[in-house]
Amino acid sequence: MKYLMTAAVAALGLASPALADMDAAKAVIEKYSQLPTFDAPGEPFDAKACMADKKMFVIPLTNANPFNAAISQGFVDAAAMVGFELRDWETQMDPAGWIQGINTAVAEGFDLIDMQGGLPPEFLVPQITEAKAAGVKVTATHNWDATTQQTPEFMDGAANTDYVTIGQIIAAWSIVQTGGKVNALVLGPDEITPTAPLRDAILGYLKDNCPDCTTKYINVPVNDWATQGQPAVQNALLADPSINYVLPVYDSMSQFIVPAIQIAGSSAKIVSYNGTPFVLDMMRDGDIVEMNVGESLGWVGMAGADANMRLLCGLDPVTKLNTPAFIFTDENVETAGNPATFNDGYGDVHTAGFKALWGLE
């Protein structure tokens, strides 16, 4: 019967319907379901000797976000291991607080300022320019995509993340789970620097690899998640009950999306990124959060510190973090802890890896 249908289509001069690339999507899922391994981002160096008279200042997007706080803790741990001074600045996603941090770092003679975890440096160009004029290097960690976004020229460097691959993992998962019949609602806050590559990777992968997949994108600014997130999702699900996936680019949005799915009576599942502990707990204890792409944030902080130390020590620059993405599902979420943490479940190869890389053992 399949042969006869194919022959009939050919006889009529019609193109065969395109099918989703299931094999490619399955390969993506298989690759990132493996426990992370440590690949050194550069050559070994004597970090203790290099950093003996240097100090680092970290300004996160906001300490109120556990994601940023966990990355900062990775910086703190790296500084303790190597033995240099590091200050983690307190800020609540407030541009005035970011500016005060830059001014404090300059006034107190810090050698480098790192803008961490999505803080948009383009809003702070005058202050960055003044800091650089004072001899302070200014970098960023986990801010831009490593392949699709350029580090601005006003920055001294950046250790960037492979956001494109993360977005492709999310899209590939939904393709496999639906047999190439995805109808996805994608959400993100456009004002956050990494949103664009994540959003575009999800939408682009589905468009290029799944001709029968459909998507709708809604921009929900971070400060409006609590007030606009739930009604936006709820209204979309009621308007189109065939939506089978809700794909927020950041998993913390899930706390507002889950109630929307429940109230709408939808069977849609959530797949997202960040490995935020409370979302992993939701996965373990419920059935709406289906998959989460995470990365060890302690590893991210150590990798950012590594890139910054290399810059301060005049070594070859590192522009891409060596932190692998890792898939959590209900089959392995218990490894993330109960309650979950930002670092459990990934193994600890990075700690020994960085110690060896920095000449500490």
What do these coordinates show?
Residues 1-20 form the signal peptide. It is found in: Cell envelope. This is Ribose transport system substrate-binding protein. By secondary structure, the protein is an alpha/beta fold. It has helices at residues 2-11, 22-31, 47-50, 66-82, 95-107, 125-133, 163-178, 195-209, 225-239, 254-264, 277-285, 297-312, 349-357; strands at 55-60, 85-88, 112-116, 137-145, 157-161, 183-188, 214-219, 245-248, 269-273, 289-294, 326-328. Helix 4 (66-82) packs across helix 12 and helix 7 (163-178) runs parallel beside helix 8 (195-209). It is globular and about 60 Å long.
Main attributes?
six-stranded mixed beta sheet, Rossmann fold, 361 residues, disordered N terminus, alpha/beta, 11 strands, five-stranded parallel beta sheet
Concise overview:
It contains 13 helices and eleven strands. With 361 residues, it is an alpha/beta fold.
Show the helix and strand layout.
Blueprint: H1 2-11, H2 22-31, H3 47-50, E1 55-60, H4 66-82, E2 85-88, H5 95-107, E3 112-116, H6 125-133, E4 137-145, E5 157-161, H7 163-178, E6 183-188, H8 195-209, E7 214-219, H9 225-239, E8 245-248, H10 254-264, E9 269-273, H11 277-285, E10 289-294, H12 297-312, E11 326-328, H13 349-357
Parallel strand pairs: 1-2, 1-3, 3-4, 4-5, 6-7, 6-8, 8-9, 9-10
Antiparallel strand pairs: 10-11
Helix pairs in contact: 2-7, 4-12, 7-8, 9-10
GO cellular component, one term: cell envelope
Protein name: Ribose transport system substrate-binding protein
InterPro entries: Peripla_BP_I
Radius of gyration, rounded? 22 Å
Beta-strand content estimate: 15-25%
Helix content: 40-55%
Order of helices and strands: HHHEHEHEHEEHEHEHEHEHEHEH
Helix count from the secondary structure assignment? 13
Instruction: State the end-to-end CA separation.
Output: 67 Å
Low-confidence stretches: 1-17
The fourth-level CATH homologous superfamily of the largest domain is Response regulator
What number of structural domains do the residues give? 2
**Name of the CATH architecture of the largest domain:** 3-Layer(aba) Sandwich
Please give the number of β-strands: 11
The largest sheet, given as strand count, sense and whether it forms a barrel, is: 6 strands, mixed
Widest beta sheet: strand line-up: 7-6-8-9-10-11
Question: What structural category characterises the helix and strand content?
Answer: alpha/beta
Reading off the top of the CATH hierarchy, the class of the largest domain is best stated as Alpha Beta
Shape: globular
The CATH topology of the largest domain is given as Rossmann fold
Average pLDDT taken over every residue:
93
